[in-house]
Amino acid sequence: MVAQLLWILAVYGIAVALVHIMHARHLRRAGDGTGRRKHYVLITSNHERQVEWYLRALSWYALLSGTRVRVTVLDDQSYDDTLKIVQRLTHMSGIELVYGTLPSGDSTAREQHVDHDEDETIRIDLRNSLEVIPIPYVQG
Description:
Blueprint: H1 2-30, E1 37-44, H2 51-65, E2 68-75, H3 82-88, E3 95-101, H4 109-112, E4 120-125
Parallel strand pairs: 1-2, 1-4, 2-3
């Protein structure tokens, strides 16, 4: 009896999740530029252990909320596999992912990589652990 009830709840939960995902995709396709858009600019430096979780959290946020999300990852001289991980995740659903390196010594470098036609641009410098807070589903 309990097992059958759990199966019913599981199927119901999956159906609810699918309806939300389909609705989010419908909103994204129907958007003619007037829809909600967020552009996250992540500045990384040796974040191979965290960057995949940050990108997956943004992907889930985009899929579940119906928000169109663009992510630009700018790497600041990482010597680990941060950029390889980002490159592997470029085809992740829900987000548009662009990556590159942050030119050293140029304080305006952040500005030249950001499109100003987005509705909302959120810059997060992951080198400072307190700036992780604006990423949905990530606890600082």
